[in-house]
Amino acid sequence: MLVCSVGLAASWLVLAASTNIVVLFVARVSCGAWLGLTTIGVSLYVAEVAPVEKRALYTGLAEAPSEKKMRPWGIFSAPVHRYSGVHFDRDHSCAFPYLITLSPPPPISTTTTCRHLCACLVLHVVQGCTCAHLFLYQGTQIMEALVADLAAPAAAAIVTFLHAAFVALFASFTSVTGRRRLLGVSALLVALCFCVFQPFEHLVFRQWSAGSRVAVTSWRAVYSVNLLVLSYSVGLCHIPGLLTAELCSGPGLLNHAGASVAWSLRWLLAFLLLRYDRMLMEFAQRENVPLVVAVTMALLTGDLVVFLPETEHRTLAAIEHGR
Prior knowledge:
The protein has helices at 2-17, 21-49, 55-63, 110-129, 132-137, 139-144, 152-177, 179-197, 219-234, 239-247, 252-275, 277-284, 289-307, 316-320; strands at residues 88-89, 94-95. It is mainly alpha-helical and 323 residues long. The chain has two domains: 2-101, no CATH class; 112-320, Growth Hormone, Chain: A. The chain has a two-stranded antiparallel sheet with strand order 1-2. It starts with a helix and ends with a helix. GO terms for molecular function: transmembrane transporter activity.
């Protein structure tokens, strides 16, 4: 993460000093690559060093995002997946293994690895089906077309604050309710929002400007948007990132390669949503499309709830080897 931070800072400097289109393009691509690697590294690192009982909370806060602990330098030379969650020294607030009692882990099953990776990919597909990125990243444009009693940036900031607060709240409850239950509840709430409130029927994009407002606030549309975002915040926001960090644990190459593939799919879906937002809105406003999306989400989530391994109160090594 330190290397990625330095690389990102250097890319920003090159971007600021670029004088032609080629340098500008290379600098922007480099910024995206370093930022992506940093984002992946944060979730993986937090999941690795957090104590087992607090892993869901810390990873959820990192995913919200919010910005904990440093590993002792003595175990940097060995694969961290062997030691994750083995022992947590509360006096020194760090993950520290009893090296004498550890034995080399058994080999990792290829079938288990493929199953975990496929589960992570399906998780991010379900997350992308919610279209929540569309409402969070373009909140100002959406609120400009819906709210008359409040400035669009302020309304978008309120939605973002509620989203972050709900993610932090339910991330703290994840260890009590369980990952799979919370994932199922969140997906069910999103599916109900699609079927009952149909937020896409009330939404239009408007270019934000300081002097233009709608005449009357469309409260039904405001409620539908907020309920969709809050339903997404219950579990579908932080649980895919948490489970990706847990299920893609293992040797360095497998760990980062598997997590990178899963996160790349997530970013690709988010890019497609934002790039083709108007086409998506027109398609989503057709008859029965929200119902089809809701049923698809329910089926995929049901499969995940049944087939995902239980990771609560288990070390990364135990999850990795199916114990």
